[in-house]
Amino acid sequence: MTAITLIGAGSAEFTAELVTDFLGIDALPEGELRLVDIDPVRLDLARRFAEHLIERTAKAWTVRADVDRAQVLAGSDVVINTIEVAGLRNVRHDYDIALRYGVDQCIGDTIGPGGLFKAFRTIPAWLEILRDVERICPEALVLNHTNPMSMMVLAASRVSTIPVYGMCHSVHYTVEQLAEYLEVGLDRLTFRAAGVNHLAWITDLWLDGDDAYPMLRERGRVPEVWEQDPVRFELMFHLGRFPTESSGHVSEYLPYFRSHPE
User: Fold this and answer.
1) CA-to-CA distance for 248 and 114, rounded, in angstroms?
2) How many degrees, rounded to 5, is the angle at CA 177 between CA 94 and CA 81?
3) How big is the CA angle at 246 (ends 245 and 249), to the nearest 5 degrees?
4) According to DSSP H, which parts of the chain are helical?
5) pLDDT digits 0-9 by tens, 190-245
6) What are the tens digits of pLDDT across the range 231-262?
7) How far apart are alpha carbons 22 and 168 in whole angstroms?
8) Where are the domains of the chain?
9) Residues in a beta bridge with 166
10) The model's pTM
11) Is 169 a catalytic residue?
């Protein structure tokens, strides 16, 4: 039976996405989902939500929750990190301090001041988690879902003996959006993507086996479509390929797009 441990399970959005993903994998008909969070209230909410999702499937999954990760790491096959150190109360400073010095961010969790601030407060806790994994379940597959992704995985590669893989939903979310822009069913699209986290590109996009980029460029010139994703469409027009982050997110790395308040 597969045992998956989710550390930082109080992160409602990531937990919901990940549990939904697990339950959609046919090769995982049963298993134990182990939820860990230092906030007992949020942990209980995550537990009840996960149990609700499981009840809606025919899967034989059970849920276990604990505020102490050492109690649930033993025997874990997969460990997923989704922590948000200090919750959201410090996030406003990531934006406000940077903006005070002329750096306008949209998300602030990748590079630049916001990403660095978040890395400084997150990486120490992350390395403690990895030390526990090394000690308790060194054979587990470790996935990181916490930003700033590149800095988190880089820190792990330099300090820990545990191989760590970064994971993000942005590529698949982008393809879902492209299906909407093209007004076609998602099942008709196939794609290839490459790049770094929060700045990957849909290098190839096929609709029923044919190149879909000519159609996407045509659709992108429709004002009602362009207005939904102006930065990404402009990047596609000038660079030839569509990036995998939202227009607001990707604009952070390109000061030209954030040089005016509008």
Assistant:
1) 15
2) 45
3) 80
4) 12-23, 40-55, 91-100, 112-136, 149-159, 170-182, 213-220, 223-226, 230-239, 247-251
5) 999 999 989 999 999 999 999 999 999 999 999 999 999 999 999 999 999 999 99
6) 999 999 999 999 999 999 999 888 888 877 66
7) 15
8) 2-166, 170-258
9) 144
10) 0.90
11) yes
Report the pLDDT averaged over residues 28-44: 95
Q: How far apart are CA 131 and CA 206, in angstroms?
A: 43
Predicted pLDDT of residue 162? 93
Please, are residues 232 and 250 in contact by the beta-carbon 8 Å criterion?
yes
Q: Which CATH architecture has domain 2-166?
A: 3-Layer(aba) Sandwich (3.40)
Q: Which two tokens stand for residue 59?
A: 């899967």
Report the distance separating Cα 204 and Cα 190, nearest Å. 8
The mean per-residue pLDDT over the stretch 9-35 comes to: 89
CB 17 within 8 A of CB 169: yes
Single-letter residue type at 9: A
Please tell me the distance from the alpha carbon of residue 144 to that of residue 82, in angstroms, as a whole number.
Answer: 7
Determine how many CB atoms are found less than 10 A away from the CB of residue 40: 12
DSSP per-residue string spanning 37-92: -S-HHHHHHHHHHHHHHHHTSS-EEEEEEES-GGGT-TT-SEEEE---TTTTTTHH
| pLDDT per position as a tens digit, 56-109 | 988 899 999 999 999 999 999 999 999 999 877 788 888 899 889 988 888 888
Rg of the chain in Å (alpha carbons)? 20
Catalytic residue (one of 52, 93, 169, 260) = 169
User: Pairing state of beta strands 242-243 and 199-207?
Assistant: antiparallel
Q: Quick one: pLDDT at residue 261?
A: 66
Token pair belonging to 55: 């009840």
Name the one residue in this structure whose structure tokens are 């093209």: 182
Q: What is the pLDDT of the chain when averaged over all its residues?
A: 93
Q: What residues does 192 pair with on adjacent strands? A: 204
Amino acid at position 82, single letter: T
Tokens of 131: 């030390």
